[in-house]
Amino acid sequence: MNTKTIAVLTSGGDAPGMNAAVRAVTRTGISSGMRVMGVRRGYNGLLNRDVFEMNLRSVSDIINDGGTALFTARSPEFNTPEGVKEAADNCRDMGIEGVVVIGGDGSFRGARDLTKAGIPCVCVPGTIDNDIASTEYTIGFDTAMNTAVEMVDRLRDTTESHDRCSVVEVMGRRCGDLALQTGIAVGATSILVPEVPFDFQRDIIDRMMFTQKTGKKHFIIVVAEGVGGVDKLAKDIEAKTGIETRATVLGHVQRGGSPTLRDRVVGTVMGYYAADLLYRGKGNRVVVMHDGKITDVDLNEALNMTRTFDKQLYDIAHRVSI
Ligand SMILES: Nc1ncnc2c1ncn2[C@@H]1O[C@H](COP(=O)(O)OP(=O)(O)OP(=O)(O)O)[C@@H](O)[C@H]1O
Ligand SMILES: O=P(O)(O)OC[C@H]1O[C@](O)(CO)[C@@H](O)[C@@H]1O
Ligand SMILES: [Mg+2]
């Protein structure tokens, strides 16, 4: 049986490209003959019934916007058995037969619970962290990487002018992908990620001293948020090397901005795919990128997968930063 009324929401941290996905879900759903409801502020919108019917023009002029036009939230109220039941009851009451959830791993766990409570969900990976095991790519990652690179390039100008060292923290709570890609692109002397334990002397100081001997006078150390501690690290580096060192946390600036071409295109294709799955009566799925192609996997299986960090790329990064 085809789903006749579906809803779409964005949840967790916003990510550039979420709007492209919302737009594609809406237009694919409507052009397939379904009603499409927009839910504001993630799972909170299901609890508060903050839901409105979308038309083809509801999603005009958002493909180029950062953030999410549906707003987002982290909802502790939903993350309880009572909250999930209330959200599912509200969906039934409002005639919502399936939900597209655009968000990160936490949002996917919420979608699994909502599916179990009788409302089939299809998940779309939208997070700048790229930390979802079932997919090679999450919407927002490319824009965030490019923003981080632009910001570190600016830091490099001042770092170089002063013969200093800059320790810069990029986002990524439990995932070093953003740090790794950014670190490579800015030629960082060291990249610290939560997936690979580091030794302060061997992986930072010795590297700085080695490159200094061959004439290097300024240094960039990229640190993932999941490693943290950049202020202390900067002090320790300065104390050990005598090189003036500054710490910078890039923070939420990395989540904003107009999405790159890649995030608009991947967001569009994943959104289309998600609405089409619900149209074909398929729930409990995650839309993923696998070998560069968009496909789907079972939601429970997706949540049981473990992510592998690209250690080979990490090693290459350090081989060439000497
Ligand atoms: N284990 C869980 N069971 C049910 N719902 C959950 C669970 N974990 C998270 N959620 C719901 O999903 C919301 C978003 O989760 P979370 O804050 O972890 O962000 P996310 O989707 O992982 O995105 P990101 O990490 O990219 O910011 C939570 O506020 C909560 O409502
Ligand atoms: O916006 P908040 O709640 O401060 O969350 C920050 C977290 O969200 C993320 O940006 C992912 O969306 C993480 O990289 C970061 O740890
Ligand atoms: Mg998450």
From TrEMBL:
It holds the Pfam family PFK. Its main location: cytoplasm. One of its GO terms (molecular function) is fructose-6-phosphate binding. Keywords: Allosteric enzyme, ATP-binding, Cytoplasm, Glycolysis, Kinase, Magnesium, Metal-binding, Nucleotide-binding, Transferase. One of its GO terms (cellular component) is 6-phosphofructokinase complex. The active site is at D129 (proton acceptor). ATP binds at G13, R74, S75, G104, D105, G106, S107. Its EC number is 2.7.1.11. It is found in: Cytoplasm. Mg(2+) binds at D105. Its cofactor is Mg(2+). Substrate binds at T127, I128, D129, R164, M171, G172, R173, E225, R246, H252, V253, Q254, R255. ADP binds at R23, A24, V25, T26, R27, R156, K213, K216, K217, H218. It comes from the Bacteria. InterPro entries: ATP_PFK (IPR022953), ATP_PFK_prok-type (IPR012003), PFKA_ATP_prok (IPR012828), Phosphofructokinase_CS (IPR015912), Phosphofructokinase_dom (IPR000023), PKF_sf (IPR035966). Homotetramer. Belongs to the phosphofructokinase type A (PFKA) family. ATP-dependent PFK group I subfamily. Prokaryotic clade 'B1' sub-subfamily. This is ATP-dependent 6-phosphofructokinase.
